[in-house]
Amino acid sequence: MLAPPLRTPLGVSGEPTMRYAGVERAAWCFYAIAALGSSIGQIWVGVEVPPWPDTVPVWVRAVLVLPFAIVIDLGGAVSAGMADWRQRLGESAYGWRILSAASVVVGVGINVVGHASVAYLAVVFGGLGCFAYAVWLLHSAARRRDALRAAGKLRNTAPAYGLLQWRREPAVTARARSLALEHGYGVVESLTTARAQIAEEVRRTALAGHIDAEIRAQHADPILAAIAATTTPVEEVAQHLMHIIDTRGWARRIAAKIQPPTHLAIDPPPPAEESRANHNDEPDLDRLTDLRTDLVNIVPTKPADYRRWHTLWITIRERPEVTNKDLAKDNDISVRTVQRIRAVGAAGLLDAPAPTNTRHLRPAASNGHRPRDQAMTADPVPGSD
């Protein structure tokens, strides 16, 4: 009637856990030794306490008392086993559980009362009976949970998150534990999912409040506004809005606003050059010679390369929201090249459809002399004839 305990508990996948076999065997041995000690204590009491005739030998008394002592201890285990069997079938089995507890109480009471004159014996034999019964109950409960879990009637256990994690993020840890039990997540995956869900709930709640205010603002009548806001599932509207929002579009728009300035700062000229520039009668030459040398030098001189830069600069002007990274990826160039095109184009060096000879104009700004072609066409000095 009483089935022996399983050698190894069944895991979630139905395979025995070999590592637990030694622990379970140790529990079974402890129960057997404790139950034997409790039975010995009851036999001792049965031999000495009852008024046996002096003619009855001690071994005869022990043989006569032995069945009753064993039945009392074994009755508690048998009743507990029956209760465990019925509980596996979904019943409460209160009757068997009460009978098991009563049997153990009788056995412990016999040991405590029978050895009352010697406190040590009363504690030892009474404690052995309590320990044996407790080990049997815990052992059978563990085997029952393993069987129910293997049959799919009991959910899996949650991961251990640790006291520090519970103290640091109690709400997140509680959500993670529920997710782990429901979906079988591990520690890291359950915590990550829990944080994401809680953050989304906070964002959805805040968005729902704004949607509610927007719905109420559409009606001048406060009663109609309240009706509209109450009948509208703002939580569902907020969730749908979060799903259809163009996040990449907003990212591109914001990125376009925080791009570094394309007009590079130019150091102010010395007072002498500034005065000479103010009296210069050639504004086009001034505009070119005031450009920074590094910008002029990076303008492509080959027509094919220049046309490519010119085309990209037109694209940048027509689509200012496109990021440097997207432009570089679409045109198979580096981000640094796109930055150079922006700087050169903003300086007006890519407006012409064909490359201009701007590099030869730069020395006029650095050495104070006109370019050679302009020097040859300059007015002759009076008296040179």
TrEMBL record:
UniProt entry tagged with the keyword Ligase: no
Q: Where is this region: Disordered?
A: 262-286, 352-385
Which keywords has UniProt assigned to this entry? Membrane, Transmembrane, Transmembrane helix
Where do Basic and acidic residues bias regions lie?
273-286
Annotated membrane-spanning segments are 28-47, 59-82, 94-113, 119-139
Designated name of the protein: DUF2637 domain-containing protein
